[in-house]
Every structure is written in C-alpha cells, then in structure tokens.
C-alpha cells in the first residue's frame, strides 16, 4: 500500500537525517526541509495510525504524563568512579594497575571528558529502544523511557545490526546556551531558574510529563555499554567508534592516549578548553583501553579498578556574604559587589563576586550574613548564585541599597524600565577613572603600558584625571612614580604619542559612550568619516544608519551635546589628538551595509583577524543569524548557524570566497 511505503520511507529518512545532524554534525538538509518531511509523516500517521513505526520520530513529542516512575533493575550494575585530584593521583593509578597486573599497561588508555549531566542506560532489544533508565543507586534506577524517547540525539532504533540486547550507557546533558535560554524563559514566566545545566538536565528528565521533557534542549553522548560481549570491540576506543556507527553521538574530545604522560597532557588540554566547550565537564575519565585488561582488573566494591576520574578543581563553592560594595561603572551604572569570606574556586581565591544589579539582589533574596553559593565560569567574573536558605540563623540582615553615589554623593537615578541604577554626574571621580581605564584598554585605544593598574595609579597620584591629561603628561612626574623609571616612562609616552592619531572608530569606541561599542563605532566612522560630522549629527541622521538604533542615537546626541564633552574634545584637539579615517566614505567599501556571521573554524584567519577585516571593509559582525545578517561565512564543521542561514536564504561564503570578496 502506498501510504505504508511512504511512512516507512519517511521514518527511515528522518532518522537518517537526525543521525547526520546529531551524530555526524553534518546535516544534508535544512531544518525547514526536515520539518516539512516531519509534517508529512505526522499527517500520514494521523490518517493511518496503525502504520506508525515504533521508531517513528513523531514519538519524540512525548506521550501521556505518568503518575510516578517505575523502578528498573540494571542487568549489570552501573558503577561509579574513583576520584583523583592531581597528576600524582593519575600516576598512582597507573602504578596500582602495574602492581595488580604484574606488568605495566602498554596498550594505552581512553581519556574522555567527564560530562556533567545525568548517567542513563538505554536498553535496545532487537535494535529498538525498549527501556531507558536513570543510574539510581547503580543497581536500580527509575524508568524514564518516555522522557528519554524525546531526546532527539538518542536513536529510537539502531542504524546497523547489533546484538539482540544492547545496553548503551552515556550522559544526558544540556548545553550552556540551551540552559541560559531555558532559564530566561523560566524567569520570564515567573518560575525559579535552574542552578546549573546539570540540575536543569536532571529536572527535565525527571518530569512526569514527557511532553515537558520534549521542550527541553537535552543532548546525549554515549560512552559505554553494559555487557561488553554484545559488541565486536576489543578496546574502549574502538567501542566509542562502534557506538557512533550504530547511531550514537560520542564526545569529540575523547582521546586515545599511549601512556600516562599522554593522559596528563590530555587532561591539561581539556582543562584549558573546558570553559570554551558548549557544555559543562567536571573532569576527565581515564579508562584502560584494552577490554580484556579491564576484565582482568575487575571491580572493587562499587568502582572499577580499571578507571579513574581526574576531577577539575571546583568552580562552585559556598562561603559567607559579609557585605556589599556598590561600584560605580564607566557610564555611572551602580553594580553591587559581594564581599565574601575568601573561597577557593578553580584554583583562584575569590573574595568578591558580582551581584549584577539591584533587581538581582531582590530576586535572589540575599541578606548579609547568608551562606551563599558562588561560582566562576571561564573568564566570567565570579558571581553569587543564590543564598543557602536552609542555613539561615535568623540573624542575617537585609542589604540596604544606596540612594546617593558612593563616590560623589550625587543622588542616584533609576529609570522605570531599566534594571540599573546610575550616578548621573559625568564628573563623578569613579566614572572618570573607569572611563580612563576604558580609553586605554583593549576595547579602547589599547595603549601599551596603560593597563588598569597603571591607570589607577596615575589617577590616584593626580597625574591623569581625564583623557586630555594623558596627552600632556609630564615625563619627570611619571618616571618618579613608585615602580616606574626611565624605561617604562619612555615606553608609555611613546605609546601615547601613537595614540594621538588613532583610527576614528577606535577613538569613538574608546570614548565609552553608552550603547556605542566597536560595531557601532565602525558604522559611524564609515557613514560620517569624521569626528566633527559625528558630533554634529542629529538623531534623525543617526537613525538612518542601519545598525544604529534609538537608544544608541539618543545616547550619542546626549553625549555630544554635553558641554563638558565638548570642552574635553576641544582640549584633545588642541593637544594634537586627531583621529584618522582609514575608511573611504560610506557606501564605497565592499562590505558597506553588509552584516556577517562567522561559523565553524577558519583555517587562514583567526576570529579576531576576520572581525577586523570585516570592520576595515565597512561591514558589521553579528553573532547569530538574525534578519539583518546578509552573509554567513562557514568554516570547517559549521553547525546549526549554517543550516539556519541556508534556510533563511542568506549568502553563504567559504573562507576563501570571503577573502576573495574583500580582495575586491
Ligand atoms: S564511565 C566505570 N565515562 O561519571 C565506568 N562515566 O562516577 C563508569 N561520566 O555519573 C562510567 N562522563 O555519568 C564514564 N566519559 C565518561 C563519563 C562518565 C561522565 C559520569 C557518569 C557517572 C559518573 C561515574
């Protein structure tokens, strides 16, 4: 029958496309095309419910809610791992293996990121997913088959013939971005946000209603099987490859390591990339690669002798909130900063952490004296996640928000529609200092030798109070500062000399005008071509520029109509500061009016170089494929951005084509 044939065909095709997307990260069709096929299948299945296949992707929407979770016994226990915290512990592990086996391990190790999600077991019978469960206590877990079925990266049927019974084990996790989006949605709907991606993944899987799970951005990596006899593999590294060929995503950062030195190297690699990965990992799992050796080594109590987890130093910890400092930012924004009892996070001692803004303090209901959870992620400033309410003694006191600026005593203002309270005084010393630091920083003119510390010193010594002072600094005074001397004074003065003729866009960005970053500054330069024209532009003219919105336009007009700003710019001009335009006038450059997104890895250019090239040729950079985007440059392993771009009909360029384009 025609319908039966088409249903079978669509089921097979859609499952194949899901594999290409989730496992190979190499989709053949766009998301839109996938949806079209999916809808076609859905319609046919509605008309012929009996013909729907057991592994139809339409089952992923989630079935009826459960009353409670049933228990499932794991046929073989799901073991836990011994933890190690140093290189020494890894060498100790290798020595213990050698002692136990009476010979060193010469066949290597599999070193795998320790994924920070939830361990699950997926049982496939005759190639079909039959049961999925949590790890539980290792012996008995909860039946979450209906929930796991909604996770698109988990195949409902195996792609290749495999054993009658196969127990695939792995981690369900949530990517950092999906987690952030989920939390935004939670907060917007007045629901409590999740503390971290692992909790969000666990909470999503333990939903009695699988249709809720289906809405959550869950992912999966396989890393093992229950009964090894069910596979044709003789090594863990082979097993990982095998799992991929039968339909499971595996972590791309798994590595085969010949010896323990290589294992330690891989650990260091993972530790340095951990914050750049799209998902959280909390260490590395090291496994003896040869399965036969694993068998000889066996299990002691609940953990195998053949594996160890090398944990990363903690990035979360608890400490006491002693007080709150209110800092004044460059544009006057008041940022509450938590003063904490020092706590070690990921090797660094943390005693201050951002509280973001006043609304956050209220939302988290923080009080002085609270035990608090703090976390540090990548270069991100440490933050206070939440108070540990259970530990409250009742003696905690509320945080009192200032009404006057802690630096200049001006009355603070808080626009209704903004989360931020600010100091309106442009001469506020705190703002001046921050502004100076910004002017000299990488985001500004990148003046060598004038990092934050040195600028603070010059400011505190009264040598530089505003930008104009930089250009009239007295060499003698600088040279005599503590920690300086002839050499450093000369170096800084030479760097300042260079900063007399900065590129116009850099200069605009360095001024630190609210809502005007690198991108807008470049747009202003290529549209107006001179500082005078930018300063004289009214809101209407500014709004003509694609990429300059209401807020930015208003901010520019406010800024340049301020008398003090005019006086400062005048002084700069008189001391010979004269921004230069590398750019031709608007519209003359190859990328004028274009907005580009880069995705995947580039082979010839670094991201920063690519960005600079775009800017230099009059274009703008965006980070995601929005309506404004005109071109997408796709490097190696481009992912979802590329498919999105295809779907939206954007111009797609290879790195070569991009280089050709700007070469004219
Ligand atoms: S193997 C004996 N491999 O770590 C083997 N576990 O204590 C035990 N985990 O919660 C598991 N990434 O979910 C293995 N590549 C990986 C892993 C991994 C994360 C988690 C696992 C479990 C814990 C084991």
Chain-wise SSE layout:
Elements: H1 2-22, H2 31-47, E1 71-73, E2 83-84, H3 87-101, E3 109-115, E4 118-125, E5 128-134, E6 140-142, H4 145-148, E7 165-174, H5 176-188, H6 197-205, H7 210-214, E8 218-225, H8 236-245, E9 255-257, H9 260-273, E10 281-288, H10 291-297, E11 299-300, E12 303-304, E13 307-311, E14 316-328, E15 334-345, E16 348-354, H11 358-364, E17 367-368, E18 371-375, E19 383-387, E20 397-398, H12 429-440, H13 452-460, H14 467-470, H15 475-479, H16 486-498, H17 504-511, H18 518-528, H19 531-536, H20 539-543, H21 550-561, H22 563-574, E21 595-599, H23 607-616, E22 620-621, E23 631-634, H24 640-647, E24 651-653, H25 655-663
Parallel strand pairs: 2-13, 21-22, 21-23, 23-24
Antiparallel strand pairs: 1-6, 3-9, 3-10, 4-5, 4-7, 7-8, 10-13, 11-12, 14-15, 14-18, 15-16, 17-20, 18-19
Helix pairs in contact: 1-2, 12-13, 12-17, 17-18
The protein binds 2-(butylsulfanyl)adenosine (IVH).
2-(butylsulfanyl)adenosine (IVH) binds at residues 79-81, 112, 114-115, 119, 171, 223-224, 285, 304, 307.
């Amino acid at each position: 029958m025609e319908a039966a044939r088409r249903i079978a065909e669509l089921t097979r095709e859609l499952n194949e496309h899901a594999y290409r997307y989730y496992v190979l990260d190499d989709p053949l069709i766009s998301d839109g095309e996938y949806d079209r096929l999916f809808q076609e299948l859905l319609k046919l299945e509605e008309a012929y419910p009996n013909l729907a296949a057991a592994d139809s992707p339409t089952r992923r929407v989630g079935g009826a809610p459960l009353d409670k979770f049933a228990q499932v016994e794991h046929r073989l226990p799901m073991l836990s791992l011994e933890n190690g915290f140093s290189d020494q512990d890894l060498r100790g592990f290798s020595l213990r293996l050698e002692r136990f086996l009476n010979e060193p391990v010469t066949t290597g190790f599999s070193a795998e990121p320790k994924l920070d999600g939830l361990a699950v077991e997926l049982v496939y019978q005759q190639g079909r997913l039959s049961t999925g469960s949590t790890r539980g206590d290792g012996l008995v877990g909860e039946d979450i088959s209906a929930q796991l079925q909604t996770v698109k990266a988990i195949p409902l049927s195996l792609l290749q013939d495999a054993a009658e019974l196969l127990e695939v084990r792995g981690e369900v996790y949530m990517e950092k971005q999906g987690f952030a989006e989920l939390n935004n949605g939670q907060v917007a709907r007045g629901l409590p946000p999740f503390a971290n991606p692992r909790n969000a993944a666990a909470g999503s899987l333990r939903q009695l209603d699988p249709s809720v799970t289906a809405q959550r951005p869950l992912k999966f990596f396989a890393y093992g099987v229950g009964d090894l006899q069910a596979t044709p593999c003789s090594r863990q590294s082979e097993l990982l490859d095998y799992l991929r060929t039968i339909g499971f995503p595996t972590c791309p950062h798994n590595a085969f390591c010949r010896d323990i030195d290589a294992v330690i190297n891989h650990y260091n690699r993972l530790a340095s990339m951990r914050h750049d990965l799209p998902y959280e990992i909390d260490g590395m799992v090291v496994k003896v690669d040869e399965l036969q050796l694993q068998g000889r080594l066996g299990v002691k109590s609940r953990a195998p002798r053949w594996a160890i987890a090398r944990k990363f130093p903690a990035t979360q910890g608890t400490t006491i909130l002693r007080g709150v400092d209110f800092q004044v930012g460059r544009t006057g924004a008041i940022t509450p900063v938590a003063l904490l009892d020092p706590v070690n996070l990921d090797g660094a001692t943390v005693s201050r952490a951002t509280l973001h803004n006043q609304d956050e303090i209220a939302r988290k209901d923080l009080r002085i004296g609270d035990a608090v959870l703090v976390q540090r992620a990548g270069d991100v400033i440490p933050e206070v996640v939440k108070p540990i309410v259970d530990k409250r003694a009742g003696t905690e006191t509320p945080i009192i928000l200032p009404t006057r600026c802690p630096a200049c005593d001006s009355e603070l203002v808080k626009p209704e529609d903004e989360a931020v309270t600010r100091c309106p005084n442009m001469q506020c010393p705190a703002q001046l200092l921050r502004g100076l630091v910004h002017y000299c920083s990488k985001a500004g003119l990148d003046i060598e030798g004038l990092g934050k510390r040195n600028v603070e010193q010059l400011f505190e010594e009264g040598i530089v109070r505003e930008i104009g002072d930089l250009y009239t600094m007295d060499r003698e005074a600088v040279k005599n500062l503590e920690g300086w001397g002839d050499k450093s004074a000369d170096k800084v003065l030479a760097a300042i000399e260079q900063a007399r003729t900065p590129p116009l866009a850099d200069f605009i960005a360095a001024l630190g005008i609210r809502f005007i970053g690198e991108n807008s500054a470049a747009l202003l330069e290529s549209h107006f071509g001179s500082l005078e024209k930018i300063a004289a532009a009214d809101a209407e003219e500014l709004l003509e520029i694609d990429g300059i919105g209401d807020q930015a336009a208003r901010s520019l007009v406010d800024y340049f109509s301020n008398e003090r700003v005019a006086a400062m710019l005048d002084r700069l001009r008189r001391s010979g500061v004269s921004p230069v335009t590398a750019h031709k006038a608007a519209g003359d450059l190859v990328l004028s009016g274009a907005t580009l997104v880069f995705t995947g890895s580039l082979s010839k250019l670094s991201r920063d170089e690519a960005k600079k090239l775009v800017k230099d040729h009059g274009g703008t950079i965006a980070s995601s494929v929005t309506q404004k985007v005109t071109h997408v440059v796709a490097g190696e392993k481009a992912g979802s951005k590329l498919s999105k771009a295809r779907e939206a009909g954007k111009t797609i360029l290879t790195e070569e084509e991009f280089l050709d384009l700007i070469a004219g």
